[in-house]
């Protein structure tokens, strides 16, 4: 893998993981209903009551028919640090509730309230643990339309509290959200009260709060699960005449203002921390990228080869195709290397290719590989000896083997398939051992790059800091935590994947790369004299490991002479046989050997899978508000099904 591709790959992978994470969240949420808008208008009455008119716009998938609106009216909150009177209570009065479909189309529905029964026969009530709460049930027996509008109008008597020095409305309008609520707008009408007579604070979410003459307007783009829409208003007490039970004979204005001031300080600090954490995440990623770049320069960047040509027109080195593959593909041995090794043993006459009396017209001729008794096996490398043991001694009779025997051996029994598979692994292992003898790769890189693993502590510490800040200040640190985790995994993966060719190895690699390009383009070289068929047999061995043998053969079909002299045919080992049969030509032997190796691997896989699936079937089972809280009264949310 080139350096640029590797770098771009990690950047792309990071982006894909992050996008997938947030995409998955969106996909999960998309299967539920969505509250597209919530608008409420509140009018404060002279006796301290408030009349609330709500309009909900909800988008549904199919299958929903019930909507609950839970409205709390409890004022006393034991967690409120300021003075309260437990007798200061409010009451609820439902004025209207109805629902329509898209464009105001009326649908047949039922409205019921707490204490009555829903369509299942269950008692209608607010969620467990909430007292002084009214639940309004709306049911459409034929199911909700895709776009629904719900309207509520109700009065909270005694919503306001009057102190000796100020009147207060401290109220939670929404909490316990079952889904996100978008496009939130809440207007509190205060007729006749000038702007300088109104003090207002918002809590529980991110939004804007505007104080105007005669009204307060709260807006938010979205309320997320866990958010709260809570407002506190301080108003001139002379404007209201509240019942005795809602009066407290204390002056609390300064205490309330000081409390809200401290909350504002804490909120500003939270905002600063959240912003610092957000931008710090990019700083952490940049720092990690710097260390990754240092690791790349020191341990991963390839040496610059002396050879820079586009083509190399002869074999760059005299080692086996599997060893070449070990260099070319960064210590990897591929399926093609087995075929290439068999062809190379035929080319070097350790294996003799026998036509085995097969006819010319046969589609899949059953050629025979015969072990040449005149050749000393001591001249073979360890992975080549595995091929001899594998095909001649294990599959064959110790002297020879046919291609059909190789193909069918894994099919005859599960044990044979396992034996075939184990010999495949043995071949790969020995090929890697032989490849390691050439010093293709830098030594000591593993020890050096291990020092870079220490840097992984950076995203770990950052994730820990994010988690602690989340716990301490109730911040949304999802982005920082996910980014830290993804960066940690990718950094460790990158450092673990670092490998580097030696100066010699990279020089050879550059030549093999140029040789591969030559094999791809030689057909278009008008000035290139085509060598004899024996040379091309040698080239095709390596073209097989380089995964371009089919393209080379197509060019050879055109460029090689239509007929060859007897001397060329006599010295040929596997290509020459095709020249006796014009219908098949070069593909006759080469293609058959290649397809036989592929079919044998396929049969191994099928036999093992079939055996294991039988075992499974026998034993398996199948199948701009401020933060903090002002501890206002009220509350309530919504539910749908």
Describe it for me?
This protein has 641 residues and is of the alpha+beta class. It contains 15 helices and 19 strands. It has a seven-stranded mixed β-sheet with strand order 4-7-2-1-10-13-12, with no helix packed on it.
Summary, kept brief:
Helices cover 42% and strands 19% of the residues.
Mean pLDDT: 86
Helix content: 40-55%
Output the strand order for the largest sheet.
4-7-2-1-10-13-12
Poorly predicted runs: 615-623
**Strand-residue proportion:** 15-25%
Q: What's the structural blueprint in terms of helices and strands?
A:
Blueprint: H1 3-30, E1 34-44, E2 50-59, E3 66-72, E4 91-100, E5 110-113, E6 133-139, E7 147-157, E8 161-162, E9 167-174, E10 181-189, E11 199-203, E12 208-212, E13 215-223, E14 229-235, H2 253-300, H3 321-328, H4 335-347, E15 351-354, E16 368-371, H5 382-395, E17 400-402, H6 403-412, H7 414-436, H8 445-449, H9 457-473, H10 478-497, H11 503-521, H12 533-545, H13 549-559, H14 566-571, H15 587-619, E18 633-634, E19 638-640
Parallel strand pairs: 1-10, 9-18
Antiparallel strand pairs: 1-2, 2-7, 3-6, 3-19, 4-7, 5-6, 8-9, 9-14, 10-13, 11-14, 12-13, 15-16, 16-17
List keywords for this structure.
641 residues; alpha+beta; seven-stranded mixed beta sheet; elongated
């Amino acid at each position: 893998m080139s350096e640029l591709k590797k770098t771009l790959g990690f950047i792309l992978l990071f982006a894909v993981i992050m996008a997938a994470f947030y995409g998955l969240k969106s996909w999960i949420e998309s299967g539920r209903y969505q509250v597209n808008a919530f608008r409420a208008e509140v009018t404060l009455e002279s006796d301290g009551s408030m009349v609330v008119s709500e309009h909900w716009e909800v988008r549904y998938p199919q299958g929903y028919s019930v909507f609950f609106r839970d409205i709390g009216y409890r004022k006393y909150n034991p967690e409120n640090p300021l003075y309260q009177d437990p007798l200061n209570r409010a009451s609820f009065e439902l004025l209207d509730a109805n629902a329509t479909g898209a464009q105001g189309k009326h649908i047949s529905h039922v409205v019921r309230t707490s204490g009555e029964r829903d369509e299942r026969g269950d008692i209608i009530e607010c969620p467990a643990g909430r007292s002084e709460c009214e639940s309004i049930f709306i049911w459409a027996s034929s199911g909700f339309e895709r776009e629904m509008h719900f309207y509520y109008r109700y009065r909270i008597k005694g919503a306001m509290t009057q102190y000796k020095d100020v009147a207060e409305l401290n109220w939670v309008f929404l909490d316990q959200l079952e889904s996100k609520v978008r496009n939130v707008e809440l207007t509190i009408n205060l007729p006749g009260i000038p702007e300088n007579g109104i003090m207002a604070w918002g809590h529980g979410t991110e939004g804007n709060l505007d104080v105007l003459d005669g009204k307060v307007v709260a807006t938010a783009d979205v309320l997320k699960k866990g958010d709260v829409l809570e407002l506190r208003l301080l108003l001139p007490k002379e404007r209201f005449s509240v019942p005795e039970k809602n009066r407290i004979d204390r002056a609390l204005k300064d205490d309330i203002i000081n409390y809200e001031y401290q909350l504002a300080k804490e909120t500003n600090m939270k905002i600063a921390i959240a912003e610092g954490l957000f931008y710090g995440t990019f700083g952490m990623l940049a720092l990690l990228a710097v260390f990754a770049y240092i690791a790349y320069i020191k341990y991963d960047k390839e040496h610059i080869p002396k050879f820079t040509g586009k083509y190399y027109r002869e074999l760059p080195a005299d080692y086996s195709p599997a060893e070449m593959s070990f260099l070319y593909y960064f210590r990897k041995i591929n399926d093609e290397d087995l075929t290439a090794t068999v062809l190379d043993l035929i080319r070097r006459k350790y294996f003799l290719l026998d036509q085995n009396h097969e006819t010319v017209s046969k589609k899949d001729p059953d050629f025979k590989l015969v072990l040449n008794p005149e050749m000393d096996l001591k001249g073979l490398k360890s992975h080549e000896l595995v091929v001899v043991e594998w095909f001649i001694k294990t599959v064959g009779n110790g002297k020879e083997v046919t291609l059909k025997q190789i193909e069918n051996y894994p099919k005859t029994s599960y044990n044979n398939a396992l034996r075939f598979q184990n010999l495949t692994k043995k071949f790969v292992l020995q090929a890697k051992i032989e490849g390691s003898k050439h010093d293709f790769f830098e030594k000591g890189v593993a020890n050096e790059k291990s020092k870079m693993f220490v840097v992984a502590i950076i995203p770990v510490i950052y994730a820990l800091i994010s988690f602690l800040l989340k716990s301490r200040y109730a911040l949304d640190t999802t982005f920082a935590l996910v980014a830290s985790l993804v960066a940690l995994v990718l950094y460790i993966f990158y450092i673990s994947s670092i490998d580097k060719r030696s100066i010699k190895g990279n020089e050879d690699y550059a030549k093999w790369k140029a040789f591969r390009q030559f094999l791809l383009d030689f057909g278009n070289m008008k000035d290139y004299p085509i060598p004899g068929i024996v040379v091309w047999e040698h080239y095709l061995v390596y073209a097989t490991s380089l995964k371009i043998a089919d393209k080379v053969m197509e060019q050879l079909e055109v460029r090689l002479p239509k007929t060859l002299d007897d001397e060329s045919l006599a010295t040929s080992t596997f290509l020459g046989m095709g020249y006796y049969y014009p219908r098949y030509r070069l593909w006759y032997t080469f293609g058959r050997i290649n397809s036989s190796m592929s079919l044998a691997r396929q049969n191994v896989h099928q036999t093992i899978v079939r055996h294991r699936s039988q075992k499974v079937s026998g034993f398996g089972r199948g199948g701009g508000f401020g933060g903090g809280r002002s501890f206002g009264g009220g509350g309530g949310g919504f539910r749908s099904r």
